[in-house]
Structure formats: C-alpha cells, structure tokens
C-alpha cells in the first residue's frame, strides 16, 4: 500500500510539474523583460555582461542572454522552463531540508507545498527575467542542504561554493554566507567555536568578492535614486510590503489594480487562508521562542534585508520564501493540533493560494498578449527594414500593478520588443520619448524634427496601438 501511495505521489508530482511549466510557457515578456540581459543579446562586446555591469554582477544572466541569441525563438520559452525547473527544485529542497532537520513528514510536506504555491512566489516565477532570484534561492538552499548532509570538511567547501553561486546569481545571495552557519548552529550542526570560525571565513569570502568586483568593474555605476533614498517611512513601508506579500494569501490584484477589483474574491481568499493562521500558526508562535525558532526568524530577516533597505516590490518577496517555509514547517512540527485538522486548514490555504495565483496569472497573460498584438501591429506597418527608430510613448496617466498589470507601452517594451522579435535584425538603435496626452499637439513638429535628424521610422505608441511613420 505504501509503495502504491508513493507511486501516486510521484505521478501527481510529475503531472503538476509539466502542467506548471506549460502554463508558464504561455506567458509573454513585458516591461523590463525586453530590456534586461536575459533576453537575446546581440551585443558583440561579450565581456561586458560577464564582469560587473553597473550595480549588477550576474554572469549567469549575461551568459543566458548570449545563449538565447543563438536562436531568438527560444525566448521566452527557455526562460520560463529554466525558471520553472528552478522553482520546482527549490520546493523539493525545502522538503528534503525539513526532513534532515528532523521535522515530521506532514510538516515537511506542507512547507514544500507552501513554498511552491505561496503567492509570494508570483512576482518572481511569472517573470521572464527572474532567473537571478530563482537561482539565488536555489543555490542558497543547496548550500544549506550540503552543510547539514555532509561531514565537516566537505560541508565547509560546499556551503562556501554554493553561497558564492547564489551571490553571483543575484547580489542578495550574499546573505547566505551568514545564514548557513547561523542555521547550522541553531540546529546543533555546529557549536559556538565553529560558528565564529565559519562566520570569519564567510566574511573573508565576502571581502574577496567585493575586491574582485572592484577590480573587474569597468566604470562607476549610475545608481537609481529609488534604491538609495532612505528614511524611516520608506523602511516601514518596505517592511509592511514584505510582511503582507510574503506571509499572506490575499487577492492582491483586487487591492492594487482597480480594473481587476473584486470584493468577493478578495474576501474569499482572505477567509480561506485564515484557518491556517488562526488555528495553527498564530497559537503556536510561543513555541518558536527558543534558539531554533529565533535562528529561522533572523534568517528570514537576513534574506529580506537587502530589499528592505533599498527597494521592495512583489518580486522581492521570493528571497525570504525559503526561510519562511522552514518556519512554517518548524511551527507545524511543534504544534499539538490534531494532524487531520492541520491538513484541512492547509487545504483551505491551498485553495486560497490557487485562486490568488490564477488571478495573477491571468493578469500577466493578458498583459503579455497586449504586447504581442502591439508587436505584430508594428511589424505589419513597417514596410521596409529600419536602422534607427524614434519611439514616442503617449502617457495617458494609466495605473499599473507591479509586473502583472502593466501599461501598454511597457508591455511593448518601449519598442525594444521588436529587436528581440526580429532576431536582432532591425532596428539597430531605438530612442525614446514620453509625452503627456495633453501635449499631443507637438507631435507633427516632433516627427518632422526626428525625420530630419535621420530616423528611418517613427513609432507612436498611443494606448494599445502603434502608428508607424516612415521616412
């Protein structure tokens, strides 16, 4: 009977994984998916994307962009496939790590499913350019797994290697150098002496990382002011976003995007998710008031810290999701609630999460379709190859919600989507200007000026439509 149940679980897992990746592959790029380096990259200066570029040093993203340039038709299918596989692998690691931390099977399984389905994953998993966050999480979890799995000599090498890979995937991965020794100490895989030694070793690696970055950097980056402008109010808002987006299953699209507002679904998702918190998690909070519980809580804050201090959005909640899932496993493992009740409460949470995930998926799908239609409309009107394009975006003061519900000219990628669609053949350069709707009267004069400056085509992006003017 046990073997039959295991086979059924494996079959369900394989089916769900295939369906998951298929659904992801239906999503089209929008917004900065069209401008980030994980799109097909035709720049001949290859090295620029392997060494630190601006505030980034993400060589795997740079290599991936060049891989896509071999055949631009792989974009975005290959992105979604690699992202989906990474998320599935991390979900499995949550289960495996939980078991190695001696959590009960029910707690381990709930934590794994929580990680996989939590709305906190949406901003990352539904994206096209989010390989960095997915694999920063994955390598961090691999680092933790190898530490608690292998003997001391091997574990030291493994956790340093995989923490470095997490950092090279995305900069916030550097926190794993601290998190791994911390979790190891709190769960008695090391003592205070070894903790101090490993933290010193991690600090050395972090210093070496920044020295190498400094040596390889070829110019001083221009830092977005959003990242460095601080203040108590900003940090409070960031923490509020973090707590809300990371822990709860609520139909956020109903809250943040008026055209999708649905009070019934908003209340339904909140009500369905409440039993897990009211009956299981909140009543057992006191059970985490110990070394292990506080170790996981500190690890959660460390994974989120880089974003809490700079900029926090829907995609950034993924960074702490692994540690949050382990906290869920820990609380459920320690709770005295009847096993059957815990299962029922979690099933209700899963139903809430499925509704929230579906709503966000549909919103993302529709945004992508708008972009595709605008691309086809532009290519159809462009009757001859073009080298230089001037793209004028009409600002209609439209509202957006993160990367799920984007403004049409962002779905169009400010014109850069055409470069990817044509396999880098045309146009070679794109310049942009955004004007307010009330200033449309300047268009004739602006168009004539840009044509005289040598632009082959003018693209006027007005709402969901693009008008092409040839030289």
Describe, in plain words, how this protein is organized in 3D.
There is one protein chain. The chain has about 475 residues and is mostly helical. It has two domains: about 1-365, no CATH class; about 370-470. The protein has helices spanning about 1-25, 60-70, 75-100, 105-115, 120-125, 130-150, 150-170, 175-185, 190-215, 225-230, 230-245, 250-255, 265-280, 290-310, 320-335, 340-380, 410, 415-420, 445-450, and strands at about 390-395, 430-435, 455-460, 465-470. It has a four-stranded mixed β-sheet with strand order 2-1-3-4, with helices on both faces. The termini are far apart. The relative contact order is 0.11. The model has no long low-confidence stretch (mean pLDDT about 90).
Structural class: mainly alpha
For the terminal residues, how far apart are their CA atoms?
74 Å
Largest sheet data: 4 strands, mixed
Task: Specify Rg, calculated over alpha carbons.
Answer: 24 Å
Share of residues in strands: 5-15%
Write down the secondary-structure element order: HHHHHHHHHHHHHHHHEHHEHEE
Overall shape: it is globular
**What is the count of helical runs?**
19
Percent helix among the residues? Answer: 55-70%
**What's the structural domain tally?**
2
Low-confidence blocks of residues: none
The protein's oligomeric status is single chain
| Major sheet: arrangement of strands | 2-1-3-4
